[in-house]
Design a protein that fits this description.
This protein is mainly alpha-helical. Helices cover 68% and strands 0% of the residues.
Length: 126
């Protein structure tokens, strides 16, 4: 089973992304509503983190770098696409720019991961 710290980090990252993606703009901090530079640029690190934690979990389960990367990318992109698809149903604007920024975060995580960078966090083999 993957290390609980990685699972907890994945769930926390997912929860923050879900809140930021699905809460009404007026529920967020002043100046961070839809369309602001901070909100838009926040997609990249958020989805890079989500992808990184998903990579750890996928590689622990599937044990191959390429397969784990494909699964991690698919999961992160599906989550981003789902949130963008839900936004118009709750009074927010889902848009292609956000999907592009999400994809840039996924690509950044995959690029860094492919270069061999790994934080010093090890999964137990329990």
């Amino acid at each position: 089973m993957p290390d609980r710290l990685v699972v907890t980090a994945w769930l926390a990252t997912f929860a923050v992304i879900a809140w930021a993606s699905l809460s009404p703009p007026d529920a967020q901090a002043s100046g961070s509503g839809n369309g602001s530079l901070i909100t838009n640029l926040g997609h990249i690190p958020a989805y890079a983190l989500l992808t990184t934690f998903t990579l750890w979990l996928a590689q622990a389960r599937f044990a191959t770098r390429v397969r784990g990367a494909g699964i991690a990318a698919a999961v992160a992109l599906a989550i981003g696409g789902a949130f963008e698809g839900i936004q118009p149903l709750i009074g927010r604007d889902g848009n292609f720019t956000d999907v592009t920024l999400n994809s840039m975060g996924v690509a950044l995580a995959l690029l860094i991961w492919s270069q061999g960078w790994r934080p010093k966090l090890y999964l137990s083999s329990r």
